[in-house]
Amino acid sequence: MTSFQNRRAAAVENDKLRVTVLQEGGHIAEILDKQAGVNPLWVPPWPSIEPSTHSGEAYGTGSEAKLLSGIMGHNLCLDVFGGPSAEEFTAGIGVHGEGSVAPYSIDVHGHTLRMRADLPLAQIQFERTIELEGSKAIIGESVTSLCPFDRPIGWTQHVTLGPPFLQPGVTQFRATATRSKVFESSFGAHDYLSPAPNSIGRTRRASMAAPPISR
Q1: Where do the H-state alpha helices sit in 24-110?
Q2: What is the arithmetic mean of pLDDT over 33-46?
Q3: Share above pLDDT 70 across residues of the chain, in percent, rounded to a whole number
Q4: Rounded CA gap, 12 and 114, in Å?
């Protein structure tokens, strides 16, 4: 075990990369390119604390408060994406579900990190492996439902990038999406992206697909 930004964490590394995850919330907080000395993932400008120690004094008492107290870098949204209903919040569900605030058990063997969390309200078991191969980090996830019946879930990878990887007014980061799917109504001038090159003259694209749910 190690620490990152005063948080309990674990790391796996080789001569090219270091990947650090937080014990509470399971956030991927760092993917450090050792040659460049750059971690592209976002670190919040406010103090980050363990979600289990959140008392509502500094981060508020709303459905997003516990998440904001410990969010960093890559955030797993499971088993909902976005805010809960008033009834769900009363029952203990916060923004983006339990996966982003739950405690994780983490084991590191060689160049492979394995982490697991049990989500009691969602009745879900979640597992992630991160394996380093040279300059690549190969990430695999699985979700096991403990419910005796089928039901829909939300399973979303919420990645936030930050400086120095991104520079305000300089960097354009583009994905294959053309419209926000969070808002059903028009989102104004930014509802659709116009085709424009990024700061180095190329259009970058990224995609991610989730593996099937196991039961």
Answers
A1: 65-70, 86-90
A2: 95
A3: 80
A4: 10
